[in-house]
Amino acid sequence: MLINVSTLLREPLGSSRDYRADTEAVAVPSAAFHRSVSGRVHLMRSERGVLVSARFDYEVPLECARCLRTFEAPLSVEFDEEYVALDDPHATARGQRVDPDDFLVDEHRHLDLSEAVWQYEQSALPLLPLCRPDCAGLCPACGADRNEARCGCDAGESDTRWGALRALADQLRTREDGDGGSEA
Ligand SMILES: [Zn+2]
Ligand SMILES: [Zn+2]
């Protein structure tokens, strides 16, 4: 998502612009990140370049932490970032320094908001995505999707686990017995 700021950069500090984004493409190809976002962008001419305040609402594909199904969920991403204009006469006159982390106005005097959307999306994503609050998840014993059917492992996961342990214990005991068991 590119915004041309060549005119804004020629205006006095504090000058501003507002944009509406309507299903605009945002992409960071190196991260295989592609989104279609809607929202609003406020730009303000700052000492180092352009101050961007943006908010986007869109759908992201997520994988449910319980049933592993992929589903779409609404997400809001909001950020304030300053984009530094390297060839800005203001900036060089004031001896501004540029951090490697700074967002930059490119040589064509465009802002690309894609990288920022991608970065801020990472912190906006839910830690434990659920396809629905009461998702029943997969059966830990047989892997069946318990949203769809009962699988017959209703004894419960703990019992099943103990069952497996008991079987292992039986096996070990049998093996010890076979070794002679003189100490028993
Ligand atoms: Zn689920
Ligand atoms: Zn099961």
Short description:
The protein has 184 residues and is an alpha+beta fold. 23% of the residues lie in helices and 36% in strands. The model has no long low-confidence stretch (mean pLDDT 86).
Description:
- The chain is an alpha+beta fold and 184 residues long.
- 23% of the residues lie in helices and 36% in strands.
- The structure holds zinc ion (2 copies).
- One zinc ion binds at residues 139, 141-142, 144, 151, 153.
Order of helices and strands: EHEEEEHEEHH
In one word, what is the shape? Answer: elongated
Give the low-pLDDT segments: none
Structural class by secondary-structure content: alpha+beta
CA radius of gyration is 28 Å
Strand order of the largest sheet: 2-3-4-5-6
Cofactors and ligands: zinc ion
Main sheet record: 5 strands, mixed
Q: Tell me the β content.
A: 35-45%
DSSP summary: helix tally: 4
Total beta strand runs: 7
Task: Name the helicity range.
Answer: 10-25%
Q: What's the rounded overall pLDDT mean?
A: 86
What structural keywords apply?
five-stranded mixed beta sheet, 36% strand, alpha+beta, binds zinc ion, 184 residues
